[in-house]
Amino acid sequence: MRTQVAIIGGGPSGLLLSQLLHLRGISSVVLERKTKDYVLGRIRAGVLEQGLVRLMEEANVAGRMHREGFVHDGTLVAYGDEMFHVDFKAHTGSGVMLYGQTELTRDLYEAREKAGGELIFNVEDVEIAGANTDCPQVHYRVGDRIHQLNCDFVAGCDGFHGVSRRTIPTDQKREYEKVYPFGWLGILSETPPVNDELIYSNSERGFALCSMRNANLSRYYIQCSLSDRPEDWTDHAFWDELKRRIPREQAEAIVMGPSIEKSIAPLRSFVCEPMRWGRLFLCGDAAHIVPPTGAKGLNTAASDVQYLYTGLRRFYEDGDMEGLDSYSAKALARVWKAERFSWWFSSLMHRYPDQSMFDHKMQIAELEFLRSSDAAQKAMAENYVGLPY
Ligand code: FAD
Ligand code: DHB
């Protein structure tokens, strides 16, 4: 089989790239290791920057997002029983869109399927060959049949544990990593959210986040130990802990109910440089990971997709390699800024196992500075709504 762009990974990066290319007449095949139901069963991001909203519009898949998503013009930041508002709209002129990654992925699958897009599920043993030549190939197996996909370019959209980054020889890449000494325990519950906007809370017992998916679907997270397992936490224990970590007034207002999903995510900062090797381009979590505080993961994946899509268009429409040649440098320049913001916000909001009282006082002083300073709030708002592409 032959295609112009072989896309490894049918998560949001791979699907969005495939849909955008399709609308410009550029063919692609998406190879996904899992089933569609499995991909749609993963509960992940919920906050979309304007850049991603615009890309969804350009991909002709924004209808349901605009009907069902919620625009948030700011967020609340709490510490102990104190709480203040950061107004994104006032500081930057824009807000963010609350719309689940699951729904965005569902919309993209639907659009690809409607257009007869080539999506292959349950692929195993994916191998990329000849990435540093003009005719790369992707080998893979479905059941007991081995296949070969010939292509012009390979887009490695296969997440942190995928095969694409590993294909780049060790002496051709450099990896930077920070692993945080805690995780996030998240639940989804069919209850009305405690507040119209998100609440990020620094408490003496650890971080908590009150988020949502819609008017009757809440998403809550608490910082947990890396050794915890979701089954160690009963719903009762989760609600009890969450309530102890947010200001009293909000704790009293929380509507509790059974969790319909419960999972733990470790926190990591990671960047692989460069994001290209020959005709293989890494995109999204395949190249970089941020800790979830500040909601930058999916949004950074989206800016990669935008740069790669633009580079591929220039190649196919004008025969110009410049966009592809500058892809890695452009993407990384934005990635590092998102890494910085996520690292800063994580450091400000969590309890570290080795944290001294001095370190805690520094967090509180910084939160009080953020509360009182227009300039500090503007800097936070600019990063939160998303730096320009
Ligand atoms: P993925 O979603 O990981 O998709 C990669 C796909 O490739 C997967 O479907 C996988 O099955 C497939 N694959 C892997 N290996 C292979 C292989 N060898 N062959 C074929 N296919 C393969 N980000 C935000 O922006 N905002 C948020 O609010 C936010 N909240 C988050 C909350 C949590 C709890 C977590 C865990 C993450 C959150 N993120 C958030 C991060 C966001 O979910 C990721 O950045 C996003 O999923 C990246 O998309 P991706 O397509 O690059 O990778
Ligand atoms: C969500 C996740 C985040 O990491 C974040 O910063 C805000 C919201 C969420 O899943 O709703």
From TrEMBL:
Instruction: Name it.
Output: 4-hydroxybenzoate 3-monooxygenase
Give EC number(s), comma-separated: 1.14.13.2
Cite the FAD-binding domain residue spans from the record: 2-342
GO BP of this protein: benzoate catabolic process
Query: Recorded GO terms, molecular function?
Result: 4-hydroxybenzoate 3-monooxygenase activity; FAD binding
Query: SUPFAM superfamilies from the entry?
Result: FAD-linked reductases, C-terminal domain (SSF54373), FAD/NAD(P)-binding domain (SSF51905)
Query: Which ranges form a coiled coil?
Result: none
Q: Which InterPro entries match?
A: FAD-bd (IPR002938), FAD/NAD-bd_sf (IPR036188), HB_mOase (IPR012733), RIFMO-like (IPR050641)
N-terminal signal peptide:
none
Phylogenetic lineage: Bacteria, Pseudomonadati, Pseudomonadota, Alphaproteobacteria, Rhodobacterales
